[in-house]
Amino acid sequence: MRTDTPQYGDSWDTYWSATEEQQETSLWDAPAELASAVDLPRFAAHLDRDKVLIDLGCGNGTQTRYLAQHFGHVIGADVSPAAIKAATAADPDTSYMVLDLFDTPAVEALHERLGDANIYMRTVLHQILPEHRPAFARSLRTLLGTTGVLAFVELAPTAEQYLHDLVERHGPPPGLTRVLSTGVRPGSVDGPEALALLGSDAFTVLAEGDSLVHTTFTLPNGQRAQVPAYFMALRHTTGQPSAPRAGD
Ligand SMILES: C[S@@+](CC[C@H](N)C(=O)[O-])C[C@H]1O[C@@H](n2cnc3c(N)ncnc32)[C@H](O)[C@@H]1O
C-alpha cells in the first residue's frame, strides 16, 4: 500500500476492537427495522436482483443481516477487521470481507471478481475527510461500473447543529465520545456534493429524499435521538436501462 494512502483502518479498527471487547453499542447501531428496513422500499425498485449488493462500510453487520434476507447475494465490506469479525460471528451465512476503499488494487480486484455491483452505504461518506472524498468516490465508481446502483443514506448538513444541540442539552452521548476519541472526524456531505463526487455529468439521480438516522441514544422523553439525514440512489447515466415505473 502506498504511504500517502489515507489510513482510516487504524482509527476504525481501534474503535471496533474496543466496542466489541467492552460489549458497547455504537451510536448509529439502530435495529434494522429503523434503518435498512426503512431504506429498502426507497431503493428496491432500482436494485437488480442479479447483481451482488455490497453493504459498504457495514460495521458489525446489523444492516447487512437484514439485507441478506432480501437479496440473494450480499457482501458486507468494511475497513476494520474487528468489525468484520463481529459481523461474521453474528451471521456466519453471509459473506463479509475486509476492504479499504482507498486500497485501489483491492477494489479493482473485487470489481473484476463480482462485475458491476450495487452498493448500499449507510452513514459512511460523512466521516471521510473532504480531501479524501474524490479518491473514495473513484473506488465507488469502480465497484459500480456502468450498471451498478449506489443507494446511500447520509447525514444532512443540519446534522452537525442537531448533534451540537443534543450535546448541549443532554451531555455527550457515550457512543459519540468513544468514536471521536479514536480520531474519527465526522462532517457532512450534502446530496449535490455527493452527486458531484461521483460525477454530475455521468450519474443520474434515481431517487432522493429526506430521512432520519435513528441512534441508540435515548432522550429523557424516552425516544431515540434521530439525526437529520437524506437518501439518494445514483446510477451511471450510460447504464440506465429505463426510468422505473411507479409501483415497480
Ligand atoms: C458510522 S459507521 C456505519 C456502519 C454501518 N454502515 C451502519 O450503518 O451500521 C461507518 C463505517 O465505515 C467504515 N469505514 C470507514 N472508512 C472506510 C474505508 N476507507 N473503507 C471501508 N470502510 C470504511 C468504518 O469502519 C465503519 O464501520
Q: What's the short story on this structure?
A:
This protein has 248 residues and is of the alpha/beta class. The protein contains nine helices and seven strands. A hairpin with a 5-residue loop joins strand 6 and strand 7.
CATH-derived topology: Rossmann fold
Question: Oligomeric form of this entry?
Answer: single chain
Identify the CATH homologous superfamily: Vaccinia Virus protein VP39
Helix/strand/pairing class, anyone? alpha/beta
Q: Work out the number of β strands.
A: 7
Overall average pLDDT: 93
Structural commentary:
- About 35% of the residues lie in helices and about 20% in strands.
- Residues about 240-248 have low confidence and may be disordered.
- By secondary structure, the protein is an alpha/beta fold.
- Strand 2, helix 4 and strand 3 form a beta-alpha-beta unit.
- The chain has a single domain (about 10-20, about 30-240), classed as Rossmann fold.
- The structure holds S-adenosylmethionine.
- The site of S-adenosylmethionine has 21 residues, from helix 1 and helix 3.
Which characteristics define this entry?
disordered C terminus; Rossmann fold; single chain; binds S-adenosylmethionine; alpha/beta; 7 strands; 9 helices; 248 residues
